[in-house]
Specification:
about 280 residues; alpha/beta; Rossmann fold; 7-stranded parallel β-sheet; 8 helices; about 15% strand; binds nicotinamide-adenine-dinucleotide
């Protein structure tokens, strides 16, 4: 997809961080944008901010881990702007803890927000993108979807899932309908509030997380790494460029190519290698 002017983009998890940067960049490219998030007040702030800059945007509150809310988002986007060309499945949460510490509810929450949401998004939006005649789907995974790190099991599983899902989607689209592109975004560290994901549990109807030793260690290690990460606007620029070039992989940190190389080398030597993904 080359021409963004007047086209329509939908972005989930758009009230903050990477989603807000991506929605903003789509608007700057001349697109009409539907911003979606679970937090109504934060979403209103993001939408108002973009409207004040003269952009044609609207907000739809949705918990992406609920299929009916993703379907409603698709219906509302169509109602607002008459078509959808780009969907950025971006909302995500992170919960740290070992397999022994984490509850089943932790697993269901993280897999619901990070992985099932993308499945729901593909089901609800692909027919709309096809109807629009051309478009692109960007799914946010992580470097944690390319290389596992201990202590964030549900996150690793969800992000490996998003990578596999998007690979499959792209292969099927290339075969059947090359006018629709698909890319998987695998960010390294980006300066956002991802390490404060527990703030999103209550709105999704999830009980507060049980504090664990691993979570404390993870926060003290990952917090500063995320804080020192790149700005979300840099990620947004990479997304737009990948859509224009129809690139499949969006790796925000070139040094991760080395980590992936070590993973493959480890695989060939029958060794397990650990990584760190945000
Ligand atoms: N920041 C990083 O270093 C990094 C690295 C790799 C991948 N990612 C991924 O990037 C994506 C965006 O995260 P971010 O870093 O901007 O974090 P963030 O916490 O700043 O933003 C996440 C957004 O998702 C929203 N959200 C949470 N639960 C939701 C739900 N159930 N339904 C709808 N919206 C919900 C939040 O309100 C928030 O606006 C996530 O998928 C995350 O896993 C981030």
């Amino acid at each position: 997809m080359q021409n963004f002017e007047g086209r329509v983009a939908v972005v989930t998890g758009a009230a903050n961080g990477i989603g807000l940067a991506s929605a903003t960049r789509f608007a700057e490219e001349g697109m009409r944008v539907v911003l979606s998030d679970i937090h109504a007040q934060e979403l209103d702030g993001a939408v108002q901010g973009l409207r004040e800059r003269g952009y044609e945007v609207t907000g739809v509150v949705a918990d992406v881990s609920k299929v009916d809310q993703v379907e409603n988002l698709a219906a509302r986007a169509l109602e607002a702007f008459g078509a959808v060309h780009i969907l950025h499945n971006n909302a995500g949460v992170l919960r740290a803890g070992t397999m022994e510490e984490l509850t089943l509810e932790d697993w269901q929450w993280v897999l619901g927000v990070n992985l099932w949401s993308v499945i729901y998004g593909i089901k609800a939006f692909l027919p709309l993108i096809r109807q629009a005649g051309e478009g692109h789907m960007v799914n946010t995974a992580s470097t944690a979807g390319l290389q596992a790190t201990g202590g964030i099991g549900p996150y690793n599983v969800s992000k490996f899932g998003v990578v596999g899902l998007t690979e499959t989607l792209r292969l099927e689209l290339d075969e059947g309908d090359p006018t629709i592109g698909a890319s998987v975004l695998c960010p390294g560290s980006v300066r956002t509030r991802i390490c404060e994901s527990d703030r999103n549990r209550e709105a999704a109807g999830v009980a507060p997380g049980v504090p664990s030793a691993t979570e404390e260690v993870f926060r003290s290690f990952a917090g500063p790494v995320i804080e020192a990460g790149i700005d979300p606007t840099e990620v947004a620029a990479m997304i737009v460029s990948a859509i224009r070039n129809n690139d499949f992989w969006i790796l925000t940190h070139p040094q991760w190519k080395e980590v992936i190389h070590d993973r493959v080398a480890g695989l060939q030597r029958n060794q397990l290698v650990s990584g760190f993904g945000g």
